[in-house]
Fold:
Amino acid sequence: MGRRTRRGIPHRSATVTVRLTEVEREALDEFTELGDFDGLSDAGRTLMLPYLEAMVAVREGKSSFGAAVEAARSMARLNQYLAEVETEHKRQRKEKEQGELGLGLSPA
Structure:
């Protein structure tokens, strides 16, 4: 794959196509919405980042153990983010259930 350029300056990123099942796509859509991402690419990159950072570490000469440490740190950040998304999902589900029951309760 050749490098794309803008006015002779190489781009610092590339587009990658990923095939997903319908269930995976729905999950990514929900993650994108609840996580307040700019789009599917941004959300997908966030999910892949721990593994990409580990691979970059290996390419930069770190040992596989060093790369695993990088991945673990990045995964911890991702887990924290996923916990925030989970909280938002539960809040929205509760709000929707209260609305369907007609309880007239204001959202917390």
Residues 64-101 form the longest helix (38 residues).
